[in-house]
Amino acid sequence: MNYATVNTILDTIIHTSNNNITVTDEKGYILYTNPQHWAVYGIELDQYVGKSVYELEAEGILSPSITAMVLNEKKSIEVMQHTITGKVVMATAYPIFNDDGEIILVISYAQDQTEINNLQHQYEQLKRKIESYQTEVKELRGKEGVIYRSKKMEQIEKTLHRVAESDATVLFLGESGVGKSMFARKLHNQSYRKKEPFIEVNCSTIPESLFEAEMFGYEPGSFTGALKQGKQGLIEQAHNGTLFLDEIGELPLAIQVKLLKVLQEKKFTRIGGTKEYHIDFRLAAATNQNLEEMVQKGTFRLDLYYRLSVIPLHIPSLRDRKEDIALLINHYLELINKKYKTNKKLHSSTYETLIQYTWPGNVRELENLIERLILTTDETMIFPNALPSSIIDQSSTSQKEPSLIIEQTMIESYDLKTILEKVEKWTISKAYQQCKSTYKMAAFLGISQPSVIRKLKKYKNQLLP
Fold this sequence. Notes:
Blueprint: H1 3-16, E1 20-25, E2 30-33, H2 35-39, H3 53-58, H4 66-73, E3 77-82, E4 88-97, E5 103-112, H5 114-142, H6 151-164, E6 170-173, H7 180-189, E7 198-202, H8 208-216, H9 234-237, E8 242-246, H10 253-265, E9 267-269, E10 276-278, E11 282-287, H11 291-297, H12 302-308, E12 311-314, H13 325-340, E13 345-346, H14 348-356, H15 362-376, E14 381-382, H16 389-394, H17 402-412, H18 416-434, H19 438-445, H20 449-459
Parallel strand pairs: 6-11, 6-12, 7-8, 8-11, 13-14
Antiparallel strand pairs: 1-2, 1-5, 3-4, 4-5, 9-10
């Protein structure tokens, strides 16, 4: 078989191939190619015939030229190319060496990734929206809005509603567990961005070494261990939606600088890339730290603090809105009973103990405790002895001693019957809290069980002084 025959066969194979193939010589001049290859780059036959890949690269048609890279580095290479028509191309090229180790040919393949990328982007957007809808449905089923009765919470709700339609940055302040994340999502759901992504980032859970890559994303091959196709950052994922930075006091100073630049310029660059991405999102943040003190210590930037605190909203702790505790107890009791298909109830003394408790973990602690009580208590009625010792010890519901009751009663009257009745009521109430049955109450008081029943009927719902 002569050279001309081999040449014809090779040319036929390339032209009839479903793959986009190009073969160049050691100087980058095109020897064999098929039209489909160049259709991807948006040029016609007369624009590449007789030209080298270096010329096509200089004209911006190949960006970059993978063949030129192979000729320079003398090894196979795979890169993503961006064409003048806006397409994204996955290009792979392989060198062919002679016996002396010199490159004589370079074979390259090009695959149009535009549709695949578009489909992937649409899939990711759809996935985020589905997750967002699922979260909304879960919230609507779980709790219809924020549970409150206090004036403080009412004022926060009004302020939130007023600022929701704007793009002003809201900084949620308050102790852990008060519901800052819930209010941030509520802000998003009341805004015109509610159908777009809500991206929540807990700044305390991302290692500092990975923070920049997670927040800003990276281009393919930016660093060891990077995904081959690159990765969208969390900021990019929040495009047109809301970016919520929880625990923003934990944000590293280096990232604070970059975040401030994004907020000012509304654009950013991925790690390892040069292309600027324009971004539009609404920022919300939350912290349980004193940012003003952090600014004074030099651990938080003053200019970023001013950017964040356009609308500062302080969510009060549960101990500062005691009127809401009873509502929340009833809400979570109903919700968790329904979740586990149970019908547990709180004894009146248990209820009173929980109302008087200071709740250092706030709403989150309350919800977790109710779930714990429902799951770990055998009886339908939950008595105070089922509560953690920390709550019982800290509770301010210690009952009045008989001597104090007598002294207070005697201020009003010296009537012996009244004094004895109040002491008896206190004693019955004490036994009612500590005992689970009328038999145990009888043993505790040293009276008969029928007597206990009669006295319970006498005082009915007045057992707590």
